[in-house]
Amino acid sequence: MSNTPPGWYPDPEPGVGERWWDGSKWTNQIRNGPGAVPPPPPPGGWAQPVGSYSRKSNAGLSLGLSIAGILCCGPLSIAGLIMGRSEMKAIDQGLTAPTSRGTAKAAFIVGIIGTSMMVVAIVAYVVLVGLVASSGNY
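The structure corresponding to this sequence follows.
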């Protein structure tokens, strides 16, 4: 019989940490403690800590391009659409902060609208030019 009171003590097996002594024998309860070996990383590695992303978001720039495409230069909408979609993918992959997801989605949607407006304008222009040319009044 032991005179050691129940409690957490360094495990007799090195590198395990601490094991519970119930007053008469070691139990299966273990915990990390001084000298404990940290567990191996999970498959795929440890998750990134919040706030540390591998790149800065370009969602604001994407939205700006999409809006500029609607206001003055249609092809900018295409760039905004592509960049907005790219930003959403980067957020899904954990490369960019998820706080910019709304801006990236807005850039994508506004880019679709601007691109659609540009296509309609081009088709209307071609039809108008064709009508004027066929009437002979040019």
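The chain is about 50% helix and 10% strand.
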